[in-house]
Amino acid sequence: MLNSASGFDQIYIVCGYTDLRRGIDGLSALIQQKFQLNPFQNVLFLFCGRRTDRIKGLVWENDGFL
C-alpha cells in the first residue's frame, strides 16, 4: 500500500482517456511505446479513464508492479 508519494523521482499524469481495463502488461507497454519511458524506474504513472471519477496508478517496486 502506498503511504507517501514523496519517494518517487517523478509523477507522470497521462493526459486523455485510457482504457482502465488494461492490465499491468498493457499499461507498461503503453508507457514504453507511446511515451518512450521506462516503467521500471522509480516513477509513478497515473491514468484516467473515460469516467473522470477513477484513476489507476502504476509504479514499479523492486519485486513487481503495484
Structure description:
The protein has one helix spanning 24-35; strands at 10-13, 43-48, 55-61, 64-65. The model has no long low-confidence stretch (mean pLDDT 88). Strand 3 and strand 4 (64-65) form a beta hairpin. With 66 residues, the chain is an alpha+beta fold. The protein contains one helix and four strands, in the order E-H-E-E-E. It has a domain at 10-40 and 49-54. 18% of the residues lie in helices and 29% in strands. The chain has a four-stranded mixed β-sheet with strand order 1-2-3-4, covered by helices on one side.
Whole-angstrom Rg = 11 Å
Strand content: 25-35%
What's the β-strand tally? 4
- Uncertain segments: none
Topology:
Layout: E1 10-13, H1 24-35, E2 43-48, E3 55-61, E4 64-65
Parallel strand pairs: 1-2
Antiparallel strand pairs: 2-3, 3-4
Please name the defining characteristics of this protein:
four-stranded mixed beta sheet, 66 residues, 4 strands, 1 helix, alpha+beta, globular
Compact description:
The protein is of the alpha+beta class and 66 residues long. Helix content is 18%, strand content 29%. It has a domain at 10-40 and 49-54.
